[in-house]
Every structure is written in structure tokens, then in C-alpha cells.
Amino acid sequence: MPSPVTQPVFRRATGDDVPHIVRLLADDPLGAKRERYETPLPTSYDEAFAAIDADPNNELVVVEANGQVVGVLQLTFIPYLTYRGSWRALIEGVRIDSRLRSSGLGRRLFEWAIARANERGCHLLQLTTDKMRPDAIRFYESLGFVASHEGMKLPLQGSPDAWRP
Amino acid sequence: MPSPVTQPVFRRATGDDVPHIVRLLADDPLGAKRERYETPLPTSYDEAFAAIDADPNNELVVVEANGQVVGVLQLTFIPYLTYRGSWRALIEGVRIDSRLRSSGLGRRLFEWAIARANERGCHLLQLTTDKMRPDAIRFYESLGFVASHEGMKLPLQGSPDAWRP
Question: By percentage, how much of chain B surpasses pLDDT 90?
Fold first, then answer.
């Protein structure tokens, strides 16, 4: 495992990254209940990647350091009539390798994502974060995010009982 | 203005609906600061509508009653790797004509949107609502939404100072 991280690269994910991303998603107290990091991976992961990759308004971004995927987030760009017709960016699925948390890598990933959202002409970047993640909330506030809204979730038919949304 | 509403129709918006939708968006204490409901409309509204309409993962939905547009919301369907590869639905830009609030129309619009999100195979429906809208929060809770997350917003370069995200 790289330590210190010298030259992280921020790039669009490829299909080959999917198992490494799933490892990151599963390595988390909430994520462990939701994901299945096993060999072979459930094909539903590859199907979801194909849908993301085919959509010009979705970008799955990874951080690579010393040849390993050590961070991930997904950007979605959405056109709205609100704010006189405008684009927003949404971030979901943020993870940093547990061995590299508090290393500054998450901040650099977000700075990259903020620049990308500006480049796409978005006037607002938004995300929701579980109220059970106080450290994450403080991190986002340190980047300038304001917790002005309630993030409300409604499980639908496809939602297993075991999953907390 | 129709009262009572007898046969509301829920349907995808067309370009002809845009001025009527902007009227709804502007007729709101927060929306009034952000929108410009004037003739002619700023072309940015039509540009945003074209982007929404061209995207198979975005659906702008209106409620029509007695020939008038009296409600609107936007659904976005997003594929994610999380939850073993899954789709979520996001709702934004919800408005019901001020003369028809508390009439049950908002509930019917949401029931329609929930059914549509199920039809698209989504496991979760999510939205953020301004903490300054306590009535809206209670309404969403009555539909089963849980305020489990903080809704965090970061204004970007294109955001006029006057706008609260």
C-alpha cells in the first residue's frame, strides 16, 4: 500500500476497475451490509458499470496511486428548469481506501470533482450524506458545503429489508 | 382555476408547457428569487428543457387539470455501482399551483412518481428539501420518506450571490 501518496491520478473508471471499486465500497461499516465483494463478482455490478459508462451525464471517477485504485466517487450532471434553466452536479458513492483516510486524498478528489463540475457549467454541487457519518459531514463542511437541506430517502420495491437506505 | 380537481392527468412535459412550468416555479417564496417569469422567457429555460427532453434518464412530469398545468416535478434515474449495482430515482423541482396546495394533488403526483420509479426498477427514491420548508418535510414523511441524510449544497462559479442553494 502506497504511503505516502506521491502522485495520485484522477481518471474515469474502466471496466477493469470495477472489482477494485467494489472492494472500496464494501470496506465500510454501512457498505459492508450492502455489497458483495467476492469472486466472481455478481454480474449486476458490471451491468451497472455499463449503464454508467454509456451515459454522458454520469462519470465514475477513481483515484489511482502507485498502480492501485484507492478512491472513488460518481458525478452525475443534471439539467433543470429551475434557476432559469441550469445544470447541477450530484455526487454519490464516495469512498477512500481505509488505509488512506485523513491523508488529504479525499480533499484532493473533491477539489478535482469541484473543478470538473465547474467545467461542465454547473451552478451547484450537491450530495447527501448519512447522519450516522459525522466525520463525513464535517469534511464536507470544511469544503464549503452547507447542510441546508434534509436528505430524504424512500425504499422502493427492489430494496431488501436488510438495507438501510 | 379548477376546483375541485376531478380528472388530473400526469404526463411528460412538452416544450409548450415550459412557460406554465416556470410560472409554477416562480410562484413560491424561494423560487421567486431565482426565476424570471416574463415574456419572452429567457432562452435558458428552453435550452434546459431541450437537454432534459433529450435525456432518457430525465423525465419532466406535469399534472394537467381542466386544461391547465397545475403541478410539476422532475425525475432523474441514475445507475450506481452501490447496492450491488442498482438504479436510484431522484426528484427535484416539485411545485403544485398555490391555489391547489393541500388539495391532495401533490400526494397523487408523488404516488405517480413512486410508481414510475418502481417501473424503472429503482430500489430507492431520494430528494432533498430545504430545511426552511417544514410543511414539505412533513408531507414527504407522510409518504414514507425518512430524513436519514444531510442534504449538502455547494454553490459553484455560475451561482449568483443572490441565490441560496
Answer: 82
